[in-house]
Description:
Elements: E1 3-4, E2 8-13, H1 16-27, H2 41-47, E3 56-59, E4 68-73, E5 84-87, E6 90-91
Amino acid sequence: MPSVKQLQVTFDCTEPERVARFWCEVLGYVVPPPPGEFARWEDFQRSLPPEEQGSWFACVDPSGVGPRLFFQRVPEGKRDEPGTDIEFPVVAERRSIG
């Protein structure tokens, strides 16, 4: 039977990094390290096309128990969808029957 190995909660907002850092403080979460070749998130952001810079930010539970929180930029006033999604990456496990 497939089982949930990780959980991510996605939030729509206008200022992803500011909102993510707020929730880091509230929940005791941390900002994960930037992608491998970058020493700082600022360096990673500058490597992106201008329209993608600052478009998302994430924070994680340092104990690995809580869900990853992902904040994505949406235009101000977007109201045609809910602002939060819960994502369940599922990993199928194969088991022999018999």
